[in-house]
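About this split. The held-out portion is used to measure sequence recovery: a designer receives only the structure tokens and must propose an amino acid at every position. Recovery is the fraction of positions where the proposal matches the reference. Here is one held-out target exactly as it appears in the evaluation file.
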């Protein structure tokens, strides 16, 4: 869709000088996700990669694990009173025989672009529904130097951010530092869902030899999505939440925060970080 950005008039003040000019803003619109014809969730997102977003969302919910689980995804025509297609409602059809979890007690229906899967904050739920236990995957070892190089590469690839300054980004890197994919969205969790959804559609799950880098903080929801996709390393340029650290420790996820320049904090899973022998004790 061509609705990633919109133009609005602003009053610009620079060093006391006042002028009127158009400004480019990131678009934010609701997306309703239906599962087999039934409403499941509404999320505020940046239009684009909507099918991947819906697929990735359902990976994190434990519904989809492979491309074969997905029959098709379509935009719903007639979503408005006049019967027009707003391209803001998608219906995900699972392959017959795919077992669906009970959503009613686990999460709220509405999710905002900032809060992710509000209401689903159970460590046990993620641990018991994860298809690919991270602790059981082949070992991945990365150096602090490699991790330190990733934020600049993420920022250099944020095309829409350059025009708006209003988007989060998530990127997948190989264990050798190769950029595999990058997605932008007004919501951090949506950007991750778009990455995971594309991987599912391409038959690439689990992402067991990758690094997930996010442009903001590492919330519980983002750690959850990494675990559900089988990603062993999650790095963020800002802080993690306490629940994200708890989930990482519970599941074996390597969690890195405050990744800025050569500095970073490793909150869990330090065995995957190739630390020097002279690392600080304590």
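Reference sequence for scoring:
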């Amino acid at each position: 869709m061509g609705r990633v950005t919109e133009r609005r008039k602003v009053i610009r003040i620079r060093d006391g000088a006042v002028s009127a000019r158009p400004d480019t803003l990131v678009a934010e619109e609701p997306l309703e996700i239906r599962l087999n014809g039934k409403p499941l969730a509404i999320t505020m997102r940046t239009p684009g990669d909507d099918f991947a977003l819906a697929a990735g969302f359902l990976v994190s919910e434990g519904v989809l694990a492979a491309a074969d689980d997905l029959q098709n995804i379509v935009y719903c025509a007639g979503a408005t009173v006049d019967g027009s297609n707003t391209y803001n409602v998608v219906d995900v059809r699972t392959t017959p025989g795919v077992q669906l979890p009970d959503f009613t007690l686990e999460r709220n229906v509405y999710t905002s672009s900032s809060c992710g899967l509000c209401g689903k904050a159970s460590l046990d739920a993620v641990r018991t529904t994860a298809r690919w236990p991270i602790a059981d995957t082949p070992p991945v070892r990365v150096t602090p130097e490699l991790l330190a190089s990733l934020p600049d590469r993420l920022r250099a690839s944020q095309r829409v951010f350059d025009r708006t300054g209003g988007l989060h980004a998530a990127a997948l890197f190989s264990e050798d530092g190769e950029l595999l994919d990058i997605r932008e969205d007004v919501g951090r969790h949506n950007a991750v869902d778009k990455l995971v959804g594309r991987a599912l559609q391409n038959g690439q799950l689990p992402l067991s030899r990758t690094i997930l880098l996010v442009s903001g903080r590492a919330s519980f929801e983002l750690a959850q999505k990494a675990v559900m996709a089988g990603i062993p390393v999650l790095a963020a340029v800002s802080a993690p939440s306490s629940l994200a650290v708890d989930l990482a420790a519970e599941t074996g996820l390597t969690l890195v925060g405050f990744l800025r320049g050569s500095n970073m904090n490793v909150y869990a899973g330090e065995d995957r970080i190739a630390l020097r022998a002279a690392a600080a004790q304590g």
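Annotator remark: The helical segments are 50-60, 123-129, 144-156, 159-164, 188-201, 220-228, 242-251.
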